[in-house]
Specification:
Strand order of the largest sheet: 1-2
Shape: elongated
Order of helices and strands: HHHHEHHEHHEEHEHHHEH
Largest sheet: 2 strands, antiparallel
Radius of gyration: 49 Å
Number of helices: 13
Oligomer: single chain
Length: 433
Amino acid sequence: MGVTDPAGPVMDRDEVDRALARLGAEHEAIETSLLALQDHAGRRLLEGAELTGVTKERWAATEASITLLWAYFDAYSGALRTARDIRARRRWSSREDLVELTELLRGESVTVSGAAAAPALSGPGRLSQSFSLATLVDRMNELYASGLDMVVAADAVWSALPARIDLLAAELQRTRRLAHSVGVRPGEHPAGDDLERVTRTLTRLRAEVISDPLAFWLPAQGSSAPGGGRPDTTVYDREARALDEVRREIDAVLGVRQDAEQRLIRLRDVLSRADRTLAEARTARGEVLAKIAATEVPVVSGPPTALQEQLAEAAEYRRQARWHRLSPLLESLEQKAEDELERARESLTAVTAPLAVRAELRGRLDAYKAKVARHGLGEDPLLVERYDAARRMLWSAPCDLRVAEQSVLRYQQAAAELLGGSRVPEQGGPEGR
């Protein structure tokens, strides 16, 4: 939609002809824009919708603006017809005609009734208001831009969000059926509760988008073009992410259904290994208590009955096809079973530590005996005496590790002195190992 020239002196015939040509083109452009607005799909939808909220308020104002816009256009069209009629009176317009045309084309000669102009524009109590054609065009431009902005925004939201919501709702229904097939139901599984919440939110969101589209419109910052902005998809995007989370949870449940038996077998194997390791630790503890004297041996706990009960519960869930309950239970059990196996291994290591110390002392004693034998000192009386003393300590039961270690150290020292080496430094007892 265009603009006209400001007021000026009396126009000559050429100026009048040029002005009429420009106004005619402007009139055609304005009419085309108004008809396009009249036929806009968004406008037709707004007229037939049951609106609420901000959209209802803005549409009421926009309808009044569109009505006023047509009133302005009718007045503008009438003024243009009058000007054309005056110019058509004679080929060479008289001075009186030119004065009249100048006033019509540049002065405030277009009158719009007060009812059409609206109280906000014509002022209270005014029956009519006069405009120049230029001012009238400016008013029409403002009203057109405001009306088009509202219509385009509503149409953009209606074109984008309801279709996307419907697609997400269809995906939601497929997910609900799949969830139901694996026992993911409201009140029984968090994912089932999430599905119900997403369903309610999407239903409410669609109704709100249809009745109040402008509540979901984000105008572009700094843009003056009609319809500048984009639909606000914040709520939709949040629910789409929530549905993705539910789908991943259901996929996990499906994965449990597919490999549940293998996972149960692995669990039984891990717990069985843990039980065997604990049994070995208990046997080793009895051996240590019988063979090693003056040593604190940790108590070995029994098998974890709680884990066995949970394993039996998991097997029952599999038999009943309660996959949604089996999924978290298996994940918990797998971690607990690995922890239990590690605990059993640590218990066995702690219990057999004294036997390991005795074995290390035996190995050290024999290594020194072999060393002195290579140097021809194997029959030395002192070495034989100290070797026999250490050996009796290490191969007797119960074995006092503190005394046995001192005996081995004395043998090492004697061997080192005979071999010309330095004294072996004193070492800590078995507790320091």
